[in-house]
């Protein structure tokens, strides 16, 4: 995640994620319209620093307000408290500087991993998380062989924590990059994309912009699940009812984290231009899963 306000910052390079947020708005409206709770506390887990988190939160709040209007209830809509969560290394200064001035909610930052407990028991009504669960808590040895095992452990920890933090009947909306059930995880576009990123880093190491040791030690902690795999993990957990599980659209997820991001982006653009494969949308086999879960515990 590139920090700050430069031209290569995340807020300027998260268009794929923004598209998913926009597609999801209608689905959030439908979910809240059938919700029996009067939501007050909302959390966005893995919020990063870009504007997408504010759009997601606003969609949720507008959906809840629409619920009151549609029912003709002559009562004031509740006050909203929104918690923005990400790792300690996230640029929260940029995030809060960018808060919409006309927002209809109180805002607070919560630092830490969502694979553990972040909030008091039964304190949240709606939790949203987009493009976050594919990042593993630890890098297992031989990632492609053991990634599924680590992902299963992480999802179990995540769902157990969320089940305790949500009120009974509270909603969890997840948007997770994945691969179709019939495609090998090694065949997705992201694998080749990361090979290209690795090539950029090695080029930069050769000219002294970074060290080969640092490149060798660098390992992205990502894992792409599948609809069948994720459904089985949720059902095994038993804390949630699956209200909806849908494939939203095909997407390429770009996630980079390094202290030489500006130079890396420049190298990356040149590399992409050299290989027409990366300019072909049909090469992208990835999907985005929308999962709406209701807490039943």
Polypeptide structure, described:
With 297 residues, the chain is an alpha/beta fold. The protein has a single domain (10-182, 221-256, 284-295), classed as Rossmann fold. It has helices at 15-33, 52-71, 92-97, 143-165, 189-206, 212-217, 227-237, 261-274, and strands spanning 41-45, 80-86, 105-111, 124-130, 166-178, 240-250, 287-295. A 7-stranded mixed beta sheet has the order 3-2-1-4-5-7-6, sandwiched between helices. It is globular, with a radius of gyration of 20 Å. Mean pLDDT is 77; it is low at 1-16 and 250-258. GO terms for molecular function: metal ion binding; methyltransferase activity.
Number of helices: 8
Query: How much is the average pLDDT?
Result: 77
CATH class category: Alpha Beta
CATH level 4 superfamily? Vaccinia Virus protein VP39
Widest beta sheet: strand line-up? 3-2-1-4-5-7-6
CATH architecture: 3-Layer(aba) Sandwich
Could you describe the largest sheet, including whether it forms a barrel? 7 strands, mixed
Organism: Quercus rubra
GO molecular function: metal ion binding; methyltransferase activity
Keywords: Magnesium, Metal-binding, Methyltransferase, Transferase
GO biological process, one term: methylation
């Amino acid at each position: 995640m590139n920090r700050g306000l430069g031209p290569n910052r995340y807020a300027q390079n998260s268009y794929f994620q923004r598209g998913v947020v926009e597609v999801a708005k209608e689905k959030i409206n439908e979910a809240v319209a059938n919700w029996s709770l009067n939501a007050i506390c909302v959390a966005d887990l893995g919020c990063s620093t870009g504007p997408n988190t504010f759009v997601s939160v606003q969609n949720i709040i507008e959906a809840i307000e629409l619920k009151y209007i549609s029912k003709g209830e002559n009562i004031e809509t509740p006050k909203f408290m929104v918690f923005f969560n990400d790792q300690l290394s996230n640029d929260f200064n940029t995030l809060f500087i960018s808060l919409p001035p006309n927002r209809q909610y109180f805002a607070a930052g919560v630092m830490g991993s969502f694979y553990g407990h972040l909030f008091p028991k039964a304190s949240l009504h709606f939790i949203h998380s987009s493009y976050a669960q594919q990042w593993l808590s630890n890098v297992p040895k031989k990632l492609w062989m053991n990634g599924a095992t680590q992902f299963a452990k992480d999802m179990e920890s995540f769902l157990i924590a969320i089940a305790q933090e949500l009120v009974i009947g509270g909603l969890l909306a997840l948007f997770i990059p994945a691969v179709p059930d019939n495609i090998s995880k090694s065949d997705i576009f992201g694998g080749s994309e990361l090979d290209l990123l690795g090539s950029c880093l090695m080029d930069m190491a050769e000219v002294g912009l970074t060290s080969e040791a640092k490149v060798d030690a660098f390992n992205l902690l990502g894992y792409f699940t599948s609809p069948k795999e994720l459904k089985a993990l949720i059902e095994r957990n038993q804390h949630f009812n699956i209200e909806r599980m849908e494939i939203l659209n095909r997407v390429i997820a770009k996630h980079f984290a390094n202290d030489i991001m500006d130079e890396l982006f420049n190298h990356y653009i040149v590399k992409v231009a050299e290989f027409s494969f990366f300019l072909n949308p049909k090469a992208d086999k990835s999907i985005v899963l929308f999962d709406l879960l209701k807490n039943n515990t």
